[in-house]
Design a protein that fits this description.
The chain has 2 helices and 9 strands. With 181 residues, the chain is of the alpha+beta class. The protein folds into 2 domains: 8-55, no CATH class; 74-180, Jelly Rolls, CATH 2.60.120. The strands form 2 sheets. It has a 5-stranded antiparallel β-sheet, with no helix packed on it. It has a 4-stranded antiparallel β-sheet with strand order 1-8-3-6, with no helix packed on it. The protein is elongated.
Length: 181
């Protein structure tokens, strides 16, 4: 049997390299990934580099405005967001709701009709199952939905036109905003 002797110096270099790699990975996690993905910034580096802005949901909340173009008082709505659907593209905007929670909604576009699927996916499901509540092509929709299971619920909009279309979505209910997906 051939024995391989590893010099002590090589073993020492390997251990130092391993410890250095682990410390560097930990630093990258705390200084860059935490602020960018989760908004956790214990060092302040993420704020200085603008990384904490990446952790914010992509939405524009509008509050305390007296009237909107449809005549509804905005105080009736909990959240209002404007979402731009690029030409020849699609986007999803989601909320997390518990089982039997209700979401009321109204959305409209700035002119163009979009294919949409208002649907939900159960939390923890790995099969790809989803339940569609409403699916068609329109320039707006409104209503309310009591969801049959806890999980993410929201809209997929597809813009088949050659021009970007802006959606204004107004919602209220017991939910947590997940945002654009």
């Amino acid at each position: 049997m051939n024995e391989v002797n590893i010099p002590i110096q090589s073993l020492k270099t390997l251990i130092i390299s391993l410890i250095s790699a682990v410390l560097l990975a930990l630093f990258v996690l705390v200084a860059f990934i935490g602020p960018a993905e989760y908004g956790i910034d214990p060092t302040g580096i993420g704020k200085d580099l603008g990384l904490t802005a990446l952790a914010q949901p992509l939405q524009e909340s509008v509050k305390k405005v007296e009237f909107c173009p449809t005549g509804d008082q905005l105080a009736d709505w909990q959240d209002i967001v404007k979402i731009t659907i690029p030409a020849k593209s699609g986007l999803e905007y989601k909320f997390y709701l518990q089982k039997n929670a209700q979401i009321a909604y109204a959305w409209n576009t700035d002119g163009g009709a979009l294919y949409f699927d208002f649907h939900g996916e159960p939390a923890g499901d790995t099969t790809g199952y989803f339940k569609s509540y409403r699916e068609t092509t329109a320039s707006g929709s409104d209503g309310s939905q009591i969801v049959p299971f806890g999980g993410t619920h929201g809209w997929y909009w597809r813009n088949d036109s050659n021009k970007a279309v802006q959606v204004t979505l107004k919602t209220k209910g017991q939910y947590k905003i997940k945002g654009l997906i």
